Amino acid sequence: MQSGGGAYSWYINKFCQYEQNLAQKEHKSIYEILEQELTNTSVGSNGLLFLPYLIGERSPWWNTNAKANFIGLKMEHQRKDLLRAIQEGVAMNLNIILNIFKAENIHISELVAVGGGAKSKSWQKIFADVYNTKIILPKLLDEAASMGAAITAGVGIGIFKDFEVASKFISLDKIIEPTPTNVKKYQKLQPIFEKAYLQLQSLFEQLNDFSEKRVLDE
Is residue 47 left, alpha or beta, with left meaning phi > 0 and alpha meaning psi from -120 to 50? Predict the structure, then answer.
C-alpha cells in the first residue's frame, strides 16, 4: 500500500499543529493527544469514508492516478470523525490485500502491528475489527523494522538458522481482540468502500489529464 501511516501523518502535519505543540510541551506522543478525541468516535465515522490514495496506489489497485477523498462529508462532522475515517480507510484498503492472501487459502490467525501507527490504540482496535483477527502489539514498536533487518542479515550470513529466531527477540505487550458487533458493521461497510474507488476511477483519470494539460498550457 502506497500511503498507510503516511495518510495519518499527512493529516496530523497539515491540520494538527496545536496538538503537536501540546504533545511537545507535555512530553507526550501526538498519538496520545489525538487518542482523547478518537475515544468518542463510532464505527463508520458518522457516515464518512476516506480513500487513502494521496500519492496514487500500489496494491490493490495499481493506479498512479488514484486520488484521496473524503466521501460523505456533512456539516455535523467533527475533526474526530475525519481522524477516524482516515484510520478506517487505511484499514479497509489493507483488508482488500489481506483478503487476497485468504483467497489463496493462507490461514492468518493473528497480525503483529509495529511502527508509529501501532501507538494508536483506536487504530489497532479498528484493524482487529476490520480484519476480524486479533492484533498483537510488541513492546518495541519503533525498533521493529531495524530488528527485522538485523535478523534478516543474520539469517543471510548464517548467524541464525532461520527466522524462527525472531521469537527470541520479540516481547509481547498487548493483544487486541475483535468485537463481533463491530466486525459485522465493517463487513457491511467494506464493499461500500471498495465501490467508492471503482465509481471514482474514471474521474481520477480525468483529473490527472486536466492537471497535465494545465501544466503544458502554463
Answer: left
Regarding pTM above 0.85, the answer is yes
**Contact indicator for 145, 151 with CB cutoff of 8 Å:** no
Q: Cα–Cα distance between 56 and 71 in angstroms, integer?
A: 17
Nearest-angstrom CA–CA distance, 99 and 112: 17
Helix (H, G, I), strand (E, B), or coil: what is residue 132? coil
Backbone angles phi and psi of 162, in degrees to 5: -155, -175
Task: Tell me the torsion sign for CA atoms 22, 25, 30, 31.
Answer: negative
Q: pLDDT confidence of 137, banded at 50, 70, 90?
A: confident
The cell for 86 is 482516515
DSSP characters over 20-62: HHHHHHTT--HHHHHHHHHTT--TTTTT-EEE--BTBB-TTT-
How far is Cα 199 from Cα 116, in angstroms, rounded to an integer? 32
**pLDDT surpassing 90 at residue 164:** no
DSSP, collapsed to helix, strand or coil, labels residue 102 as helix
Report yes or no: 23 and 35 within 8 Å, Cβ to Cβ: no
